[in-house]
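ARCHIVE CARD
Drawer: 12
Card no.: 0347
Subject: one protein chain, sequence and derived structure
Cross-reference: see card 0346
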Amino acid sequence: MKSTKETLLISGLIVIIIFLTSSCGSNSGKQSSESTSEGIEVISIADIKVSKLSDVIDNISYTALKDHPEHRAYRIDKVLIEDGLIYIFDYYSGRSLSVYDLKGNFQFAITKPGQGPNQYLSIQDFLVDKSKVEVLDARGKLVFYDNQGIFERSEKLPFSAQAFLKRGNDYQFQTGKIPNELGRNGKSCEVVQYNLETKKSDCLLEIHNGKDPHSFRERNILKNTASKTYYGTYFNDTIYEKQDNSFVPEVILDFSPDALPPEMFEHNSPYDDYIGYLNKNKDKAYHTPSLQGNANFLITQFSKSNSHHLIYDIKNGSKIVLKTTAKNDVDGGLPLYWAHTINDRDIIMIFDSENVLAKAYKLQQEKSKFNQKEQAFLNFTNAFNPEDPLVMISYHLK
């Protein structure tokens, strides 16, 4: 996130983002968003009332993901639903991809950490293309598996990347703000388009904020929806959309007056000072994206004293904010901690079954009578096999 007026150099074109000036900030209480003359929508976070889960969600369903032979996932980093299958990647604990059908039946797994040509050292990202799995390895290579998780081949990349996606034969890679000479005139590039066959690379977005103060790898920051490709990154107020051969600003999240000061992003600002500032100023707001979406909705996250979801209805322009820790007042089950993916009008969260069972036990201790939806949740957990490692929870949007 930079200052309230920021000039972005994108593929040789200068796009001037007109952010909210102090006069605009004084009017933020009157409107939740506005469109600039460039077509960039500015969303005033402070003006959107935080909703209850029941304001947004009318029904929650649960599916046991069962029969996995060996893997329990305690942290889910990325989820994709493609062609009736759900792909669940756990980068940190299991370093494994688990694949189920939408009824919860286990299909196959990819667990290939190692140094060999058919293995990955450390997963950065993955995608599914025509039922085949492509894995982005930290060593700067792509590893390809067939629709049963069997290794096919690997391809070395001419650069390192942290996230990627694909449309047609072209890939878009995010470099993680690593200095490179992939931009025009030797400048560093943040999002690179690369064709695996021709080996041609094009810079789609040059680095405009060279400091990346976030210590973890960024996940779910590049997203293909039905017709659009979005990009958003930590501590940046802007969500970009790919148009032709560049990424241009599409949505700006206005965090003023609680935005982080621009001096926090100076190149010589020590990382420890940055963390110290956040610890002392917990009310400061910043983007912590996990972009999800389809033709109807775009979901991202931001932090402001707490982690929040921003649910943007693309068709009617409405915006909804939910705290990730908001009480589940629909069925007494788990809050919507993470929006791992969205399937039609269902926000999908994958959770470890032990935590789901613990939540049901707590609900039973707190109450003696249950409404219909609470009872449906308890019926699911009462019939649950504790050997099943994961639960898919579908939060249906009204």
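Annotation on reverse: The first strand starts at residue 5 and ends at 10. The chain has a mean pLDDT of 84.
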